[in-house]
Amino acid sequence: MENQEMEKKMMSIVAEDGSVEEVEVILAFEFKDTKKEYVIYTKNEKDENDNVTVYVSHVDRSSGEPKLMGIDDDEEWNRVKDVLRELSKAE
Which residue in 90, 89, 87 sits closest to 28, CA to CA? Predict the structure, then answer.
């Protein structure tokens, strides 16, 4: 069996100051009951324990252009953390 590296999915994010950054998408998903979309991505930065830092954002498409928004609701954040836990178990 060949050892194939999965092709990385990249996306560009535009910061409020207009700067553009390329990031690697780890997972994009939607909660069916709320129809809210999320994206988990990384800039491939490492923390002091040599773990890769990941970011999670809610995808807001209400203006036509997708915008990455923070997650302010505790219940919503807990559901997203459950997804992150499952993702970390799969690795």
Answer: 87
Identify whether 50 is part of a domain. yes
- Rg, the chain, Cα only: 15
76-80 LR contacts (CB < 8 Å, sep 24+): 76/34, 76/36, 79/31, 80/38, 80/56
The 10s digit of each residue's pLDDT in 31-59 is 999 999 999 999 999 999 998 899 999 99
The total number of structural domains in the chain stands at 1
Beta strands 52-60 and 36-46 are: antiparallel
Give me 89's structure tokens: 């178990």
**Mean pLDDT computed over 8-16:** 89
